[in-house]
């Protein structure tokens, strides 16, 4: 009986033993690396049908596809880093504008107790009878500036903040519009105004934005046409 038992134990030892897999809580990297790709390619070549071997062109295409995918992934990482550097550079550049006056393409502007509003009328051609109108938030015209005939280019204007009688108007937001006579009709002209930069905002979606005094909504750094002393 002892011999039979010993033989049985020996046979059990020769039987197939299931490999013990170690369970780990650590997350595994599911990305296919270059080493993994070449291992798969080697296995593919080892088990291919000898009567129907893989064509060289097909093998080259597989290698090219993997190389291209890996290159795109690396390029995306580099572009992400470059975008971060550019955002930081723009933020640093924009921060130097805080407290300064910038010229932006808008007719909405803010008047304080001590300052008026100045800006530029853009003319694509020589124009007659150019007039700048200052309106309050209700659309009422509070002041008009007659500029007369102007050549093509940028025509500057200044408003000291007073009405037609010379009375100082209260601080607040005003709308500046420019008109000119072309033929028998009056046309509105593009206008830009100066505004003081109060602060700078950094947004992942919109990049760097300049917050201007009294004007809602930020302006991009690329919108700035000119920088002047505050």
UniProtKB/TrEMBL annotation:
Residues 89-224 form the FlgD Tudor-like domain. Residues 115-183 form the FlgD/Vpr Ig-like domain. One of its GO terms (biological process) is bacterial-type flagellum organization. It holds the Pfam family FlgD_ig. Belongs to the FlgD family. This is Basal-body rod modification protein FlgD. Required for flagellar hook formation. May act as a scaffolding protein. The keyword Lyase does not apply. Keywords: Bacterial flagellum biogenesis, Cell projection, Cilium, Flagellum. InterPro entries: FlgD, FlgD/Vpr_Ig-like, FLgD_Tudor.
